[in-house]
From TrEMBL:
GO MF terms held by the record: carboxypeptidase activity; penicillin binding
SUPFAM superfamilies: beta-lactamase/transpeptidase-like, Penicillin binding protein dimerisation domain, Penicillin-binding protein 2x (pbp-2x), c-terminal domain
GO BP: cell wall organization
Gene3D superfamilies listed in its UniProt record: 3.30.450.330, DD-peptidase/beta-lactamase superfamily, Penicillin-binding protein 2a (Domain 2)
PANTHER family: PEPTIDOGLYCAN D,D-TRANSPEPTIDASE (PTHR30627), PEPTIDOGLYCAN D,D-TRANSPEPTIDASE FTSI (PTHR30627:SF1)
Chief location category: membrane
Membrane-crossing segments per the record: 12-36
A Gene Ontology cellular-component term: plasma membrane
Keywords from the named record: Carboxypeptidase, Hydrolase, Membrane, Protease, Transmembrane, Transmembrane helix
Name the UniProt record assigns to this protein: PASTA domain-containing protein
Amino acid sequence: MPITEKNILTRLYVVAGFLFLFAMAVLVKLVSIQLVEGDKYRKLAMARTEKMFTIAPKRGNLYSDDGSLLATSVSRYTIRFDAETVSNKDFEENVKALSDSLAKLFGKTTSHYQQLLRKAKVNKNRYALVARNLDYSDYIAVKQFPLFNKGPYKGGLIIEQKIVREHPLGKIAERSVGYERVDENGYYTRVGLEGAFGEYLRGVEGKRLKQKIAKGQWKPIGWDNIVEPKDGYDVVSTIDINIQDIAHHALLRQLEKYNAEHGCVIVMETKTGEVKAISNLGRTTGGKYYERLNYAIGESHEPGSTFKLMSMVVALEDKVIDTSTVVDTEKGTYKVYNRTVRDSKYGGYGKITAAKAFEVSSNTAFAKIINTNYKDKPEKFVNRLMNMGLHRELGLPIKGEGKPVIRYPGDKGWSGVSLAWMSYGYEVSLTPLQTLTFYNAIANDGEMLRPRLIKEVKEWDKTIIKFEKEVINPSICSKETAAKAKQLLKNVVEKKHGTGHRLYSPNFSMAGKTGTTQKNYVSKDPEVMKYISTFAGYFPAENPKYSCIVVIHEPDKSVGYYGADVSGPVFKSVAQKIYASSPKIDEVDVDEVDSKELDEAYQRYYADANKKYKQVPNVEGMSGMDAISILENLGIEVEVKGNGKVRKQSISKGTDLKKVNKIVLELS
């Protein structure tokens, strides 16, 4: 078709129409962006150039009970230089003086800093690093340096502040002090006191506006924060730094001496449940020890012979025995079904009282006592343990408490030998702190307290929250049973046949129980078998002020592994040094009830003892269990009638021992 003027005009009109419609579409879009979607795109642009950052608040201080710092927050500052905001004139006038000041403060050369600053200026670097991790005094000094004293815009000074946590005591109690960390997803990791009481310590975050600059870096805008952070509260713990230091070093020495795998020490105030020291040391591959894990709270294991106290309390409460009940240890072995219980002493102890069985830590005696009296109703034994709370966690604020194991008849793992094995600390599991809580209850005449690690929360000098003692069980047993148990624990240390007698000192009194637990005991290979050595107790014995437990895992068997040898000396060292550093502890108010009568009885006994036991001693007025132990050690067979103190003895004082085979004691 021939091209005509009319065709050309039609095509022009069509093109013009399309251009008009396109222009109208662009105009509509511009109006829409400006008026309808403007806020959205302005925010997007702002987000790409400016962003709100959170500012971590200053975490509250963690104190010991006397106000000494266990953990504190300090500010650390990083100094950067924005070379783009500084005029050439100001830069040239001040660069030499600024470099001199920096060199003098940080110990580098002036030329080093001149080169750094000039390079930043040439490259138009808006975020050049000058110094990092400055303390507050250095930060204040840098702010006054030439050029930097002109501020962030004219002087190019960029200041970044961060809060770091420091422990003035260093590695001592590091695991117990702990930490609180949060990851990029907001998940917290909480350890020790820092983690347990983070809600008080952490404070409230602030807000700071920053501007995006080259290379994806963010520069603070202005001097001030949008929202100021609020500092956390201070927390006063129950830890006594003197006792903590004593416990730490006593444990460390013993771990090194026995080349042990790990261990822990806990010291608790008897009447309040306040934990005064808690030390946890584990060994590195290089043989060094450090606060590796919180074994005291988190590690549940078979307690071994320290559990005999629990078994004794159950038997005394149920009145299936008394301390004077005679048990035949059957030459050191006792067979239950296809399993044999053995005493550590070859040949056993013969016929002994329940009291002496506890003092010498006879496995066969305890297996026999518990198995014989509870085999028809094993739930009665377990129910008593559970009534004393041994199957429950302590409910501590610190995360990671190990779970106790007290099996019930019918549970998985229960068998015909379970009663016998439980009686002396196998087939059960407790953490060191759970064991100590029970011992502390006995020292406290039956009142069981929840261990406490915090005294109060403070803001400056104002108390926000005060924590008092918490009673878990006002009476785990009768006062009569508690009194008998306390005497037994005292005898373990004081009596010559007691497993803890090597720890005895005439200068101060202690009471406690040794424990030596076999690990991997299912193996018959002596090289595989390892041990846990424990000593748990309290001091002074007469009026307990502190309870303490020492647990050491896998000591070198060639050096020693018994609880009295490995853990006992740590207990004694802690007790001795606390005595020496705490004069008030000697001001013991000994119970006056019957004390005069008992003292006179024991004076008569010791007078007889000086005669080297050629004659029958006078045991009248003594407790039955002590009288029986004395007479049995002289080779005399003892028959007992009644309970309590010795009212009458059938063989009079002074009778030649060679003529005596048996004596009858009447107890009141």
